[in-house]
Amino acid sequence: MAIEIICTELGKSYIGDGVTTNALQNINLTFSKGEFTAIIGPSGSGKSTLLSLIGTLDKPTTGKIQYDGEEIMNKSKNKIADFRFEEVGFIFQQFHLLPTLTALENVLTPLFAQKVAYKKHRRGEEVLEQVGLADKMNSLPSQLSGGQQQRVAIARAIVHKPNWLFADEPTGNLDTETGERIFELLRQLNKDKECGVIFVTHNPKLAAKADRMITMKDGGVISDQPGESK
Length: 230
Hints:
With about 230 residues, the chain is α/β, with parallel strands linked by helices. The protein has a single domain, classed as P-loop containing nucleotide triphosphate hydrolases (Rossmann fold). Helices cover about 30% and strands about 30% of the residues. It contains 7 helices and 10 strands. The strands form 2 sheets. Strands 6-7-8-3-9-10 form a 6-stranded mixed β-sheet, sandwiched between helices. It starts with a strand and ends with a strand. The mean pLDDT is about 90. Its EC number is 3.6.3.-. Keywords: ATP-binding, Hydrolase, Nucleotide-binding, Transport. This is ABC transport system ATP-binding protein/lipoprotein-releasing system ATP-binding protein. GO terms for molecular function: ATP binding; ATP hydrolysis activity; transmembrane transporter activity.
């Protein structure tokens, strides 16, 4: 159970047409389990790149990422995949629900390839109840509103009981009122389960409600300060 993430001199570069682009550079941050952190900044500032690196979806060009002092990205692909399943849940702006599967079946997809001790079907029902969709378990994505689809995506992200929840613009495709409800749901999950939440957003009003607000620009951190909840 990882309770701390440490990023040290983290950098990410891309090379195209002989030109090197520094998406991230010299990132030094520590995240604590149980904390709700918002990362904000303009498009191209490096927010999503940072989230992908912290969540082990991509590897840094320079620097290192440690979970409780252990450098995860030095492990094999299989070990990293196992670690990701045990520790991390992802929520994206695009819901990425499979259109031919019901809400419950979509939620259960992360568990199909894993050997888990608890009953998979019941666990899926539990998390859908938790996000307020007990009456939509057998609905297809096309039968759900945008906000309901995002809640299914959230349920899928927490079905394996992760210690860290990473949300990349999860309210970006939703209207303001629905986006605020999704934010409050993530906030409640953070409080109830004591999982660390790192939330990328363009919305400064939502970011200010977090425990901590990190502002990025041009691939670097320009401020790191407490949110309104602190």
